Amino acid sequence: MPSGDTKAEMRVVDIYRRAGDKLAENWVFIDILHYLYVQGLDVLQRMAEINRTAYP
Q1: pLDDT values of the chain reduced to their tens digit, one per residue, 56 residues
Q2: By the 8 A CB rule, do 46 and 55 touch?
Q3: Contact call for residues 29 and 12 (beta carbons, < 8 A)
Q4: Can you tell me the distance from the alpha carbon of 26 to that of 28, in angstroms, rounded to the nearest whole number?
Q5: What ranges do the domains of the chain cover?
Q6: Would you tell me how many other CB atoms lie within 10 Å of the CB of residue 33?
Q7: Amino acid 6: pLDDT
Q8: Res 1: pLDDT
Q9: Which of 3, 15, 30, 39 is in the most buried spot, having the most CB atoms within 10 Å?
Q10: What phi, psi does 39 have (nearest 5°)?
Q11: 3-state SS track over the chain
């Protein structure tokens, strides 16, 4: 994606799992769909349009 003038923020969620006293897993979810939507690209809308044309 080319850069633009729109300022956007990344929404991030960290999920941790402990095993005893140690960190066993760290999952990081980054909301890419939200970021692209703020930048002017609605991925879900594009997918719906593709599905409508592919499966009329």
Answers
A1: 566 788 878 788 899 999 999 999 999 888 888 888 888 889 999 999 999 998 87
A2: no
A3: yes
A4: 7
A5: 32-56
A6: 13
A7: 80
A8: 58
A9: 39
A10: -80, 0
A11: CCCCCCCCCCCEEEEEEEECCEEEEEEEEECHHHHHHHCCCCHHHHHHHHHHHHCC
Q: Which residue has the tokens 């769909």?
A: 33
The single residue listed with the structure tokens 């930048």 is: 39
Measured CA to CA, the distance from residue 28 to residue 14 in angstroms comes to 5
Q: Distance of alpha carbon 50 from its chain centroid, rounded?
A: 19
Q: Rounded CA gap, 21 and 25, in Å?
A: 12
Polymer length in residues for the chain: 56
Round to whole Å and give the CA distance between 49 and 26: 35
